[in-house]
Amino acid sequence: MMKRSKRERLLQQQLENQPPRRRFLRLGLAAVGATILSACDRLSANSKFVGALESAQNLSRAAQKLVTGRVAMAQEFTPADIRASFRSNGTIMPNSEQYDAMLKNNFADWKLEVAGLVEKPMQFSLAELRQLPSRTQITRHDCVEGWSAIGKWKGVPLHHILALVKPLPEAQYVLFRCADPMDEEDDDAGQQAKKEVKDSTYYESIDMDDAYHPQTILAYDLNDTALPVRNGAPLRVRVERQLGYKHAKYLMKIELVKDFEHIRGGKGGYWEDEGYDWYAGI
Ligand SMILES: Nc1nc2c(c(=O)[nH]1)N[C@H]1C(S)=C(S)[C@@H](COP(=O)(O)O)O[C@H]1N2
Ligand SMILES: [Mo]
To answer: What does pTM read for this prediction?
Structure first.
């Protein structure tokens, strides 16, 4: 499990490894900020000004939509581009008794729960998901730690699931809840007690634009075999226009929400609560 210092190092790496377009936007905004500041450095004490800086990531999100359009597709590759084995990162084996039990049973009792702001909450077994229409795509995964890997993913497009559960008009985001706790090893009683009160499982969220995107799938196969544990068995998100940390592994529950202000750290994802940008478009 990650220690605090590792997280800080990752965050630093993320800042250094931002894709060029986003770095450009950020530099552009910083330049505007610098101009205003040199004109009147009291502005920094002005909350409106700070608010404007905080909306930098909304700016980059809006700018990307302008540049690439709503339905821009992530690049797809050919079978010759696939690596022999897909690297894994973050959790490689969830530290959870519940997960261990499901794994022992080859996920026969695992179910994906879909709930929240929907007309018809539903649950899907792995067999049921495999019966639904599927999409196969060979794409490149880009992690903020500075590596990428090309893999072939097969799964159910999220829009099929949404069509079944029927999101209510107020649903703005799709939240993914995962099986893996992210807190430190719990080998003493104190840690065990802490675990009971605090949910530290990995989670993520995307907006409806990415949720309905044709390449956003819930993947159960990687390179023509069932998803390995280290890559998120039995089901993980592929949201191909976003950086690696948005691709939630070990998926347990999907929740449609209006906002995530009151969920966990309030930033819409495990790494977002640690300081990463919510919008990780590439
Ligand atoms: N549940 C869960 N999902 C996760 C993570 C994790 O630690 N737990 N790590 C994220 C990060 S940072 C990356 S780069 C990818 C890694 O996916 P891989 O293990 O298939 O390479 O998963 C993402 N999804
Ligand atoms: Mo990552």
So the answer is: 0.79
Share of the chain above pLDDT 90, in %: 68
Q: Give CATH for domain 79-273.
A: 3.90.420.10
Give how far the C-alpha of residue 126 lies from the chain's centroid of Cα atoms, to the nearest Å: 21
CB of 91 shorter than 6 A to ligand 1: yes
Identify the residue whose C-alpha is closest to ligand 1 atom 1: 249
The residue-averaged pLDDT of 204-222 equals 98
pLDDT at 125: 98
Q: Is the CB of 178 under 6 A from ligand 1?
A: yes
CB distance 252 to ligand 1 below 6 Å: no
Q: b/e for 183-210, b at 16 or more Cβ within 10 A?
A: eeeeeeeeeeeebeeeeebbbbbbeeeb
Query: Any idea where the domains of the chain sit in the sequence?
Result: 6-68, 79-273
Whether residue 246 contacts residue 185, with contact meaning beta carbons closer than 8 Å, is answered with no
Q: What's the token pair of residue 27? A: 């530099």
